[in-house]
Design brief:
Layout lengths: L2 H9 L13 E3 L2 E3 L5 E4 L2 H4 L8 H13 L10 H14 L3 E5 L2 H19 L6 E5 L8 H6 L16 E4 L4 H10 L2 E6 L2 E2 L5 E2 L2 H13 L3 E6 L22 E4 L10 E5 L20 H13 L2 H17 L6 E7 L2 E6 L3 H10 L2 E2 L1 E3 L2 E4 L7 H16 L1
Parallel strand pairs: 3-15, 5-6, 5-7, 7-10, 10-11
Antiparallel strand pairs: 1-2, 2-3, 4-12, 8-9, 11-12, 13-14, 14-17, 16-17
Helix pairs in contact: 3-9, 4-9, 11-12
The protein binds pyridoxal-5'-phosphate (PLP).
């Protein structure tokens, strides 16, 4: 065991089942261990390093901001915060943005907004939020309650009340909960990431959008993992032709620095007032400067590239022995294999490719700009590990 691994075992809370890999540095979609072993990175820090490691443009934006001021608190105005909020609104049609530092915080904000909106517009008893079974919305006590997977809830009771879980892709199940509870909102991921890269049906999402309008509840879309170009559109909901009332996002937005955002649509644009919410670190100027650089580069050409690479991966694993099926969209891809995904991912590590898992699937979340040659090299290695 290296001294790093020893110190980790001695001093770091044991919440992560880490792979036996220490990362010392990287460049683009390649990572290096301290002894120089090279890995092709198909996980991008769980969909975070949208343009890879130490990307030149992103680094320049971050360093320029570091040279100016690294933190101010939200008592003062700063340009990166306002610039990022303007970009997010212009590119989504959303009206206002609240910045936090993570996906869970973005969802906490979305939930607070939904509760306040419902309390003001429908009555205080309308606080229930419907989420989907097998979904994932974060690790705080409230976002855990929103997460429709019982095994996350054990030993942490009582969770925040006011969450019920519907079946994914079953509009009748949502309707039944809407009539059984006094509801504020429905909250979904268009692709359940942690749940196994499960893409929601077009009809279900469209139907949900119409239903929430009709029933006067809000539609919240959790784009923490699916957002920021990941699915081949800027946000995954754009694949479905719907307009959510609230969009939460994080992971890829900062390109590697912690940032989360709740985008507030027309119905809730003025719901938050002075003192209703806040965050000391939120809208950190360095994180925001990095995010402005990330968002500015997710243009039509980049999104076309994401879709092309996606097509390549989907085709490459079609009819491969040992592969049952593929799931997902864009560069958020699940591979269901006959053999256990975790065994294949372990073999891939030995051969220098870093993949993720999600439930019983191999999960790929490469950088949006991963060079085609590296993607091809990695796909070849994964295939060999599947057939071994
Ligand atoms: C990762 C994730 C979260 C939680 O984000 P953190 O930054 O870890 O708090 C929430 N929702 C979805 C869909 C995610 O994938």
């Amino acid at each position: 065991m290296s001294s790093v691994m020893q110190n980790d075992a001695s001093y770091v809370a044991g919440t992560y089942k880490r792979f036996p890999v220490e990362i010392a540095s990287g460049k683009g979609s390649e990572l290096y261990s301290p002894d120089g072993k090279r890995y092709i990175d198909l996980g991008s820090g769980i969909g975070v390093t949208a343009f890879g490691i130490s990307d030149g443009e992103w680094k320049k934006a971050v360093i320029e901001q570091l040279d100016l001021v690294q933190h101010t608190s939200n008592l003062y105005y700063t340009k990166p915060c306002t610039e990022l909020a303007r970009l997010l609104c212009e590119r989504t049609g959303m009206k206002k943005v609240f910045f936090g530092n993570s996906g869970a915080e973005a969802n906490e904000c979305a939930i607070k907004v939904a509760r306040k909106w419902a309390s003001e517009n429908k009555g205080e008893e309308y606080y229930t939020i419907i989420t989907l079974k097998n979904g994932f919305h974060g690790r705080t006590l409230t976002t855990l309650a929103a997460t429709g997977q019982d095994h996350y809830h054990e030993l942490f009771q009582p969770l925040t009340p006011g969450f019920v879980h519907a079946e994914a892709n079953d509009l009748e199940s949502v309707k039944a909960l809407l009539s059984a509870h006094k509801c504020a909102a429905v909250m979904i991921e268009c692709i359940q990431g942690e749940g196994g890269v499960l893409t929601l049906d077009k009809d279900f999402v469209k139907g949900l959008s119409e239903l929430t309008r009709k029933e006067n509840v809000l539609l919240i879309v959790d784009e923490v993992q699916t957002g920021n170009g990941r699915t081949g559109k800027l946000y995954a909901y754009m694949n479905y032709g719907i307009t959510p009332d609230i969009v939460s996002t994080a992971k890829g937005l900062g390109g590697g620095l912690p940032i989360g955002a709740a985008l507030l649509g027309e119905r809730v644009e003025n719901t938050l007032g002075f003192g209703d919410h806040g965050s000391t670190f939120g809208a950190n100027p360095v994180a925001c400067a990095g995010a402005v650089s990330v968002l500015s580069r997710i243009d039509d050409a980049l999104l076309d590239e994401v879709r092309l690479k996606s097509e390549y991966v989907f085709n490459a694993f079609k009819d491969v022995e040992g592969v049952e099926y593929l799931s997902g969209m864009g560069l958020m891809i699940g591979i269901k294999t006959v053999k256990p995904a975790s065994d294949i991912v372990a073999k891939c590590i030995e051969k220098g490719v870093l993949c993720l898992t999600a439930k019983d699937k191999i999960r790929l979340l490469p950088a949006l700009n991963i060079p085609m040659e590296l993607l091809e090299e990695a796909v070849k290695i994964i295939k060999s590990c599947i057939s071994e």
